[in-house]
Amino acid sequence: MNRRIFFTTVLLAVLLCSLSCGCGAEKSSGQIQNVKIGVSVYRKDDTFVSSLCTDLENDAKAKETESGTKINLNIVESQSSQALQNDQVDSFLSGNYNVICVNMVDRTAAAVIVDKAKKENVPVIFFNREPVEEDLRMWSEAYYVGADAAQSCTLQGEIIQNAYRKDPRSIDRNGDGVIQYVILEGEQGHQDALLRTEYSVKKLVDSGLKVEKLADDTANWQRAQGAAKMTQWIQKFGKRIEVVLCNNDDMALGAIDAVRESPLKSNAPAVVGVDGTRPGLEAIRDGSMLGTVLNDASQQAKAIFDLSYSLACGKGVPGSVKLTSGHYVKIPYRIVTKENLAKYLS
Questions:
Q1: Count of domains in the chain?
Q2: Rounded to two decimals, what is the model's pTM?
């Protein structure tokens, strides 16, 4: 009888041990052997997001080589569907992933994902699309990695301001003392789009420049839509357009495409973007884009990966990640123009 009790006790201990080990990163003699990080992005054809994902993959490979730990970095696309993204999160959770990283389709829907992750005790890191603050604060293990959207377009306005001070007619092409501008915005209701639009113009006004808005419209971060909107505006306003403020580089490149196919190509308006993507930097080099504001994908990817890996290993927030207000990692923006372009192209 005692022997049966003994074996039953041993069997229960083995089962409990296997269950507890199956819920986290695999360990052997205290060393993490396998880390699983699930990443869901709203779209893979977004140039900035694609670049960030490539950097994430490179960071994972480097850490795998350095540590000897097997790192399973699974990046999936939500195809702009919040319902699909929620299903992907469910799949990560049921697959015993150690950390989940989410580039939200709908930034106002983060509470559902935070709640799911909290119930399974799996840290969740949002990036690029900032959730509502109340949703992020629902749980201590919910984080956001990104940049200050207001800063990006304060700097964008600074690019125009600096160019004007250096040569007023390079911006105010008709010499009327007023800068006529159009704005290509990201998607409707997106926080970055709202802030980038507001602060780029605010910077110009605060610096004492007179401005006149001719038009603004959303182009959903996409080059083709940016080109289509710009074509319409060229037909309507023609040479009155002196500045094109764009919430990202892809839309700025679309505006440039439209200008090149129009009578404005001989006296093109000043176009500025945000993100500092490789195509955007190339456009600065060839002179078709005045400047952009670097949204540092590589540094954001590093922060996301370092935080993910450390949390997966049960070590909390690493020293390499500067956390503010308990939940936020903000990477500063930087101005890029022809004057400092070489630094970023390299």
A1: 2
A2: 0.83
